[in-house]
Amino acid sequence: MREQSFEFYSIALFGAILCRYFLVAGLTHWVFYSAVSQSLINPRLPHRSPARGEIRHDIQLSVISAVVFALAAALVLSAYHRGLTRLYLDPYQYGVWYLGASYGGVLLLQDTYFYFTHRLFHQPRWFTWLHRGHHCSRYPTPWTSFAFDPLEAVVQAVFLVGVVFVLPLHFITVLAVLATMTVWAVLNHLGPDRLPALFPHHWLGQWVIGPAHHSIHHLKFTVHYGLYFTFWDRLLNTQDPRYTQTLDESAPDRIDKMSS
């Protein structure tokens, strides 16, 4: 990999991150908020059509977030070329098995970091400065997925920068984590009303966060702080008890009860 200047990395990565956001969020929004998808909306679920002002606000925050993450990624690449990170290129250096193991390990670490920082952001003294912008969309859309407040974006970028200095990670593993984070965030911000009633939230909803789980957070604020998995919410009693008590019910019935 040829070394470039920090400025080059920053500009190029900003463009790449922004294009990824508009491509993934825009395509998902087009699919799930199109005229055809309106027929799939369950009228019993809390929903409304997204306001243009809220979408514009989310996009503005996302552009700022793209700047923060581009600078963080540029820092990582510059440090890599100076031999300061633990990033590597040879997939056999630690064994092929380690690619999968390190991918799973980073997701678990990121989920833990996100849970505790996210819960901190909801403390009254921090919420206004770190997280209120994201919650301007009480009924989120795919455009909300990357809408971090500037200081929150910095906090989340710290993990992505710090982990490459601590753990040996292949570039493929890092890209896989970033892709997972992007897709997961977009899907979790769809809102439960945008999915067919038979969408499988059953047993999988016990351990993996999906639109139904995260929509409750945007409605109630005081529960469901995880990123990928529900075990921290379950372990530390920040999961709505009615979510687990009604896992045998359909997703529409469950969301309808919990949002009331």
Principal-axes geometry comes out as: globular
What is the averaged pLDDT score?
86
Strand content range = under 5%
Q: What can be said about the biggest beta sheet?
A: 2 strands, parallel
> Looking across the biggest beta sheet, what order are the strands in?
1-2
* Portion of residues within helices: 55-70%
Provide a count of the helices: 10
**Rg value:** 19 Å
Description of the structure:
- With about 260 residues, the protein is mainly α.
- The chain folds into 2 domains: about 5-40 and about 50-190, no CATH class; about 200-260, no CATH class.
- The chain has 10 helices and 2 strands.
- The chain has helices at about 5-30, 50-80, 95-120, 125-130, 150-165, 170-190, 210-220, 230-235, 240-245, 250-260, and strands at about 85-90, 170.
- Helix 1 (about 5-30) packs parallel to helix 6 (about 170-190) and helix 3 crosses helix 6.
- The longest helix has 30 residues, at about 50-80.
- It is globular, with a radius of gyration of 19 Å.
- The termini are far apart.
Layout of helices and strands:
Elements: H1 6-32, H2 52-81, E1 87-88, H3 96-121, H4 124-130, H5 150-166, E2 169-170, H6 171-188, H7 211-220, H8 231-235, H9 241-245, H10 251-258
Parallel strand pairs: 1-2
Helix pairs in contact: 1-2, 1-6, 2-5, 3-5, 3-6
